[in-house]
């Protein structure tokens, strides 16, 4: 059972805590949480029985071995500076901040700080997360295994070279933020054609779930697409519109733009 300190109890702090507790990886009473917003602490205390603490020092000096930093990239430097004096090399520091490199983290903490950079995603809260991890400074393979084990409890977790962290951020970190509007557009399209919204929504969600399950088998995306596409049928008529609009190019541009933005965040 992991004892964890969490700094930042926003969307992602909440998602991870929910995932860790519901997967049995930790107990609410073993999780200490610090957030500048008291209402967030109350929400998490009521929901999962976590232990709220009132200062950064409290969460940093507690006996928890792992400290997860789940705050916005823009305030990471200031918070790391404040943490530096408390933790040295005693704790494993896991950052989930988009764009913030381990180089920046080590320069703020200490060159031998045990640092792991993770890019998780919001579906961790329902056990279907996708996370990529890399280590730096004094973090050894044992630290990496601990982190991989933790994030595996809430989905898929893989080790990657840090040079790929920004594209992972664009793909799986931001990915849900692109998929929900696409799902909404599918539903709206069906509503436009006269289907009621409740039915349209239910069929949209199941279609995404089912398609992901089919893709999970490892078959190529184009082979899967061909299986749905009858000669002279409905799917090919829709695909022609998709290709005419350049949807694939647009989605590739989306990943490129988000990757570039992640790169910029380290300099903001
Ligand atoms: N939202 C997402 O789906 C994902 C977010 N991330 C990363 O997770 C991090 C957090 O993002 P969100 O949870 O979406 O943001 P959020 O804004 O929902 O949560 C951030 C929390 O940090 C708190 N906070 C602000 N200053 C603080 C301080 N000095 N000390 C302690 N707490 C403080 C805020 O009150 C807030 O509750 C970001 O770095 C983001 O890049 C990574 C993967 C996915
Ligand atoms: O939008 C963002 O910057 C964060 C990182 C990945 C998902 N949300």
Automatic annotation (TrEMBL):
Residues 4-99 form the Pyrroline-5-carboxylate reductase catalytic N-terminal domain. This is Pyrroline-5-carboxylate reductase. Catalyzes the reduction of 1-pyrroline-5-carboxylate (PCA) to L-proline. Pfam families: F420_oxidored, P5CR_dimer. NCBIfam families: proC. Its EC number is 1.5.1.2. It catalyses: L-proline + NAD(+) = (S)-1-pyrroline-5-carboxylate + NADH + 2 H(+); L-proline + NADP(+) = (S)-1-pyrroline-5-carboxylate + NADPH + 2 H(+). The keyword Nuclease does not apply. The gene is proC. Keywords: Amino-acid biosynthesis, Cytoplasm, NADP, Oxidoreductase, Proline biosynthesis. One of its GO terms (cellular component) is cytoplasm. Residues 162-265 form the Pyrroline-5-carboxylate reductase dimerisation domain. It is found in: Cytoplasm. It comes from Desulfomonile tiedjei (strain ATCC 49306 / DSM 6799 / DCB-1). Belongs to the pyrroline-5-carboxylate reductase family. InterPro entries: 6-PGluconate_DH-like_C_sf (IPR008927), NAD(P)-bd_dom_sf (IPR036291), P5C_Rdtase_cat_N (IPR028939), P5CR-like_CS (IPR053790), P5CR_dimer (IPR029036), Pyrroline-COOH_reductase (IPR000304). NADP(+) binds at residues 7-12, 70-73. Its main location: cytoplasm. GO terms for biological process: L-proline biosynthetic process. GO terms for molecular function: pyrroline-5-carboxylate reductase activity. Signal peptide: none annotated. Pathway: Amino-acid biosynthesis; L-proline biosynthesis; L-proline from L-glutamate 5-semialdehyde: step 1/1.
